[in-house]
Amino acid sequence: EESNARQVLRELLQRYREAWSAWWDELSATGRWSLLGVGLVAAIGAFVLGLILPNVGAALVSSLAGSVMVLTALGRLSARYLPQMGDYLPTTPRAMLLAVACATVTGVLIQWIFSRKSADK
């Protein structure tokens, strides 16, 4: 049982690795450097935000992780069980990035609305 689950996981990771490698190979050199630059700036910005405003940083990271998980699951489940809905889901990288950004901002706003306010002010 465990070895079967391990084999399924290994195959899944191999498929993802191949898909990401193919996508990376399709990028131009300028696109690769742009992506690396944006990633570096985002990492430094997130680090600084975490140092200055740790609660906001935690809300942002948890919302980003949640939105990526939800959108990934939604895409996989809809492709399997509701293929006719495929036209309504983001498929291009730009549309996916916009969907993740909107879901992340929504998650941060929800966390801010429901956060416990301090009574000492």
Overview of this structure, please?
The chain has 121 residues and is mainly alpha-helical. The protein is globular. The termini are far apart. Helix content is 82%, strand content 0%. The protein has helices at 2-26, 29-52, 54-81, 93-114. The mean pLDDT is 86.
Key terms for this structure?
mainly alpha; about 120 residues; 4 helices; single chain
Concise summary:
This protein has 121 residues and is mostly helical. The protein is 82% helix and 0% strand.
Briefly note the structural class of the backbone: mainly alpha
pLDDT < 50 runs, ≥5 residues? none
Shape: globular
Q: Mean of residue pLDDT? A: 86
Topology:
Elements: H1 2-26, H2 29-52, H3 54-81, H4 93-114
Helix pairs in contact: 2-3, 3-4
